[in-house]
Design goal:
The protein is mainly α. The chain is 68% helix and 0% strand. The protein is built from 13 helices and no strands. The longest helix has 23 residues, at 152-174. It is globular. The termini are far apart.
Length: 209
């Protein structure tokens, strides 16, 4: 099916007269994201489930859709007003309590990395991790532990390895001895810092086997 066929199907079968082939192409290229009703209609036209149209879910809405749950079901299970829950979902801004966060993780079957992301803790985790690898990692075991509920020894091992990797990469880059050594080190270091959370979860996985 081409974009024009998909757009026609959404207009004719789902009452969405504004859907054009250009909009469908924008969805395909990731330039914009379809709303929940649009995603449901799109899945209907393509004869699949909404969850199949999502790659690796990242947002609260994507995890809910992947699990095939309605917003009302999630809000009720968490003890939230439906409008309050929808605001969190639309803004991708989790505002629930710790108890509700735990219930959310169980309901959506979130693993720890996804739980940290969905509940909005990833930016704070990234900030602590960047500081840990560029200064003394020991000072950040406790702050990271408040965000990521893991055994302290496991966190110590993961942060120490993360620090070693970052510092080792910087030293190796500088030792190339080229005239652009500083620029190379800066670029390599920035790339590592940009992906610091991914490096952290990789270390956790490798340590736990």
């Amino acid at each position: 099916m081409g974009p024009e066929h998909v757009a026609y199907g959404m207009r004719a079968s789902y009452g969405m007269p504004y859907v054009t082939p250009d909009l469908v192409v924008a969805w395909e290229r990731g330039m914009v994201s379809p709303t929940s009703p649009e995603l449901t209609a799109l899945a209907g036209v393509l004869w699949c489930s909404p969850g199949e149209l999502i790659g690796r879910p990242r947002t609260l809405r994507e995890h809910r859709i992947t699990r095939g749950l309605a917003p009302d079901d999630v809000a009720r299970a968490l003890g939230l007003e439906i409008l309050a829950y929808l605001r969190m979902e639309e803004n991708n801004d989790w505002r629930g309590t710790e108890r509700q966060a735990t219930a959310l993780a169980e309901l959506l079957e979130l693993d720890l990395p996804d739980f940290v992301t969905v509940t909005g803790r990833e930016p704070r985790l990234a900030e602590h991790l960047r500081s840990a690898v560029t200064t003394r990692w020991q000072a950040y075991v406790r702050p990271v532990g408040k965000i990521v509920p893991l055994d302290r020894r496991l966190l110590e091992d993961a942060l120490q390895e993360l620090h070693r990797e970052y510092q080792g990469q910087m030293v190796a880059t500088l030792s190339w001895g080229s005239s652009n050594g500083d620029n190379g080190a800066g670029a390599a270091g920035q790339d590592f810092l940009d992906r610091i959370v991914d490096h952290f979860w990789t270390n956790i996985q490798e340590i736990t086997g």
